[in-house]
Write a structure and sequence with these properties.
This protein is an alpha+beta fold. It is 43% helix and 25% strand. Helix 2 packs antiparallel against helix 3.
């Protein structure tokens, strides 16, 4: 089924970029810091719970996580980070959504605009690109000792795609109910090995050859910007690129 393939491609691309940057912990810390602004208690803050779980799955220390929570909740003087989203088009018409966390909105927009302009693209107005994407959630669930029971619980949820692996299930979920669904599954005793929120292009733009190489270079420059938390585009990358 498509769910496993999409999930693996998302994980592979994000993982490769984060490893290249050496800044995966920085992204986790920022996400935890921002999520903790509304509540420092993960039991009452699903977004924070998801951010902590993701950080722990990547072996971040509990001490580092607690420091990020303290910063976000204002216990150590507060955090000035804000979330901003930029929309734009790369050369050839590829659509990009750039999600950032910054303490200086003017600096960040200037630098992101420069990257688009230098590549021959441009930033565009809010809403000009976002409608081309749909929110999705991808989770890997431990099959457990009773695989049939685990599957039965999963089938009770509204999912887009579900694939059975050797020792786990890969599930694609609607983004709108993603966090709540993850919480329900945990409450029912399932173990979530990993979870990833993403935005998926409704239609993909195929590219090849030199065009793909240029778009990949542009993608990498955006993704290595210090303030970028997540990056989405509607490019249909080749298998070699993935």
């Amino acid at each position: 089924m498509a769910g496993h393939s999409k999930w693996k491609n998302i994980q592979h691309r994000k993982g490769a970029q984060d490893a290249k940057r050496g800044q995966i912990f920085t992204r986790f810390i920022r996400e935890i810091t921002i999520a903790a602004k509304s509540s420092p208690d993960p039991a009452n803050n699903p977004r924070l719970r998801a951010a902590i779980d993701k950080a722990l799955n990547h072996n971040m220390s509990k001490d580092t996580i607690q420091k990020a929570i303290a910063k976000g909740s204002g216990q150590d003087g507060g955090a000035d980070l804000i979330e901003v989203v930029y929309e734009g088009y790369a050369p050839g018409g590829a659509a990009f959504l750039v999600e950032c966390a910054t303490d200086n909105r003017n600096r960040t927009v200037s630098e992101i605009r420069h990257l688009f302009t230098k590549a021959g693209g441009s930033l565009s107005a809010p809403g000009s690109v976002s409608y081309l994407f749909e929110e999705r959630g991808f989770i890997e669930v431990d099959a457990g000792t009773d695989k049939e029971k685990t599957l039965e619980i999963l089938l009770e949820e509204s999912f887009i795609d579900l694939e059975e692996g050797e020792t786990s299930f890969f599930v694609e979920l609607p983004g709108a109910d993603f966090t709540a669904t993850c919480e329900r599954l945990r409450e029912k005793g399932l173990k979530l090995i990993s979870q990833e929120f993403s935005k998926v292009a409704i239609t993909k733009m195929p590219v090849a050859g030199e065009d793909e190489i240029k778009l990949q270079a542009f993608y990498d420059k955006l993704d290595t910007h210090d303030d970028v938390q997540a990056l989405y585009c509607n490019v249909e990358w080749s298998e070699d690129s993935e």
